[in-house]
Queue: 4 jobs
Job 1
Amino acid sequence: MEGTRTATRYAKSFIDLAIEQGTLEKAYKDMKYIAEVAKGNHEFSVFLKSPLIKTDKKKEILKTIFEGRLDKMTEAYIQLITTKKREMYLAQIAEEFINQYNTKKQILKAVVTTASGIDDATRKKVHELVKGASQSEVVLEEKINKDIIGGFIIRVGDRQIDASIARKLEDLKHEFKEGSYIKKN
């Protein structure tokens, strides 16, 4: 809970600074990059959380990792976070920044989960369906989960449509347990 509040506060302060400086789009691109690095590299996350590595060394390493890849304001912000010993929340701050950016820009994130991925035609239909229901810009995130067997699950905000075969089998199993199926002679 503490990490979430910290990430929210730091992300809000950075988004406000980026708006004030007129660099919101650059900051968004940078935060997406930082989030990708954190998701794709477990060692990076361990490094950020390590109490054994001194703050000065972390600042030096972070500068080396991101130098030339991020806007100067973002680099300075990361150095500030590290100075305040909040670098362990950097990945969460980046994710929260992206969420706040999407809210400000009225961008909806739709997560589509399938057993084997979707083709371009289906992707386009899902995109149009979600966009038509919300009148907002839509960012589609695709996930693959073989456990759903087939069908799909779409999650937009706090709403979810579960049309997976696994869900249908679970519902059918529940119906049989309830005894709603009675054999007729």
Job 2
Amino acid sequence: MLGRLNHVAIAVRDLEAATRTYREALGADVSAPQALPEHGVTVVFVHLPNTKIEFLEPLGENSPIAKFLEKSPDGGMHHLCYEVSDIRAARDHLKAQGLRVLGDGEPKIGAHGKPVLFLHPKDCLGTLTELEEV
């Protein structure tokens, strides 16, 4: 069911500084910032040969990333994202296995313009897990 690792998401306080570090010090190909008000974040993607890294900066004080940064002031890994070919079939299978889907259980459109869902971290070895339909 799981496809390739799509990205590793890292919560950051300063998107510009994180981008500069990866672009200038590490020589990475980094996308332009993209505000996603419906998710409460601004994101950039670091493009790597085998996957991506997503930097998440809070967009407003009610952002889930702002809450994450309250607990982890220096930032850190926020979630892993895996690709699936059929997100609703994956959701139904995982729910039948006892895993919890966050929110109302319906896919939302993510940063790549594709349907995404999140699984409860307590059901995934303590790691928030995103599924993205590709």
Job 3
Amino acid sequence: MAQLQGASITYRVAVGRQRGRKVFTLQTLPAIDDAFEAGAGKVAGFSLHAGVVARADERQKLERLCRYISRPAVAEKRLSLTSNGNVRYELKTPYRDGTTHVIFDPLDFIAKLAALVPPPRANLTRFHGVFAPNSRYRDRVVPGRRAQLGAQEATGDEATLAERRASMTWAQRLKRVFSIDVEVCPVCGGAMRIIACIEDPDVIEKIMSHLDAKASESPGTRLPPCRAPPQRALFD
């Protein structure tokens, strides 16, 4: 992974016959020699932009900024294949040297994607200042369970140690992030509870294969089985 990441940030080919060479680029625009824009700096290949400011009442601007910094690394709509089978990626903003497209060999493109995979158990988003996890003022600016516990302390209500350390469950996180409520039955709307966490890949594959086969065999709307009409009572 270290070699793949090193090749990725230096625009080098990581694998294949062209290993070590510069990635092929298309420069279709003239180079720009003007100074780096105000509010931003660039040192040793790294750039930091600090020119965007959002006031407390500019909620839409703040949301747009949050969406920008949390966007995926690759936009599929700008991906395409060349006539010889290479992967062509169109840049959203041209580089200062006029580069508008980057061309990858398919195997090297997979290596570039692998370099983007985050390491396990590593936080990709870090908070500082009053948003830091151990800040004494965090409960005043962040709504949630910890804020509710802080309000309990302010009113004199005692919170247990388990309540202080409790965080959202995976079911609650799925509902909050992806709007998937696994605690509600999608058929009847009743309450559901988690009975097991399956992590064995072989067992997961068997379950998913069974569900795929069952979905392909059964129609979208299941009809009741056929039966004879009810017997009519005969009277003299």
Job 4
Amino acid sequence: MSEPLDPVAPAARRALSPARLTRVEDAWTDARLVEACLAGQQAAWTALIERYARLIYAIPRRYQATQEDAEDIFQAVCLELHHALPRLRKVESLRSWLITVASHASLDWKQKRTRRGHAVDVEDADPVALSTTDRDVLEEVERDQLVREAVRTLAPRCRELVRILFFEQPPMSYKDVARHFGLAVGSLGFIRGRCLKKLQQALRASGVSGA
């Protein structure tokens, strides 16, 4: 982790694009990724950033930050994560930590913008004082991340099928999806149903309400 974070920006672009390559590190737990990051494995750092890129980036965008400002906040959060990793005591709280850091940075940006230069330190931002709208934003972002994490636990074919059916932009036709997997169109519905059932089970296990 002693090298500068030059790969952060390209990692973010890959993570936020529809098409991604599936790597071994994608199936690793956060704890294993963090351990590998601390051992200096750049691939693990890239995988960790890509795993949480949408979560981090979504928070400033939900606060109506411009794309440029959202990218600056994203970079700041990644740099803070890089510095904090050696001191991270509870890896299982990484998602909540990132939400807190990104929301503080976004609130700081919002306050600077609305107060026209009267800056408020990020350390002074109080999560308890969030408005109902702010809390709704964070809950929606966290739910989206939980869904993506649940998808990551699926078997490779189910994970790829769910990604193509629900995350690919523009959406692919059933015929094209079937061709992608080398399946008959008629059999795709059965496999889709089985994969969605497994996804529903994963969502329930992660505590997503309504799953």
